[in-house]
């Protein structure tokens, strides 16, 4: 009988150790899965942050390209305007005189309009309209008279 009790005790203790090993394995598996989930969540957060940074960089690049295209278009317009005026040849003296006085007259008129708006409008109207009038007057002054500087001799660089 002692043999049977020994075998039963060995079977019972082996079963208990087997169950304890299974339980420990399950507990370890639970912590391992929790750590894996935490790692995945951190990785997803990192990837989301990288995507956000890439989208921001792409938006800034697009804004820079738009600004560059607008600037290039403005310079092409100025060049075309100056080339068109240079293509106009000399005419009758009175025509050249009228053409020469048109720019100063229009410039003074634009500055007078800007001044009238400034002194005649209330504060709310002044803010809304003055920027446009000032832009037009400044553009006229700098664009129309910007090409009036002394010409450099073509032979000298």
Q: What are the salient characteristics of this protein?
A:
157 residues, 3 helices, 88% helix
Total discrete domains: 2
Low-pLDDT residue intervals, each spanning 5 or more residues:
none
What's the count of strands? 0
Number of helices: 3
Largest sheet: none
Distance between the termini: 120 Å
User: Which band does the percent of strand residues land in?
Assistant: under 5%
Class from secondary-structure proportions: mainly alpha
Q: Mean pLDDT, nearest integer?
A: 77
Give me the strand/helix succession: HHH
Whole-angstrom Rg: 42 Å
Helix content: over 70%
Gross morphology: rod-shaped
Structure commentary:
The chain is mainly α and 157 residues long. It has 2 domains: 1-88; 91-147. It contains 3 helices and no strands. Helix 2 (93-120) runs antiparallel to helix 3. The radius of gyration is 42 Å and the shape is rod-shaped. The model has no long low-confidence stretch (mean pLDDT 77).
SSE arrangement:
Blueprint: H1 2-87, H2 93-120, H3 123-146
Helix pairs in contact: 2-3
Quick summary of this structure?
With 157 residues, the chain is mainly α. The chain has helices spanning 2-87, 93-120, 123-146. The protein contains three helices and no strands.
């Amino acid at each position: 009988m002692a043999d049977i009790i020994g075998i039963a005790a060995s079977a019972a203790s082996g079963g208990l150790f087997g169950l304890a090993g299974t339980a420990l394995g399950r507990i370890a598996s639970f912590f391992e899965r929790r750590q894996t989930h935490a790692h995945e969540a951190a990785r997803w957060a990192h990837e989301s942050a990288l995507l956000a940074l890439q989208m921001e960089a792409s938006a800034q690049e697009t804004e820079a390209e738009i600004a560059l295209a607008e600037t290039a278009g403005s310079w092409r317009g100025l060049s075309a305007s100056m080339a068109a005026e240079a293509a106009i040849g000399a005419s009758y003296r009175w025509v050249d005189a009228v053409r020469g006085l048109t720019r100063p007259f229009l410039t003074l008129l634009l500055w007078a309009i800007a001044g009238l708006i400034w002194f005649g409008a209330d504060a709310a109207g002044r803010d809304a309209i003055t920027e446009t009038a000032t832009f037009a007057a400044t553009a006229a002054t700098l664009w129309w008279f910007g090409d009036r500087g002394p010409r450099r001799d073509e032979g000298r660089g």
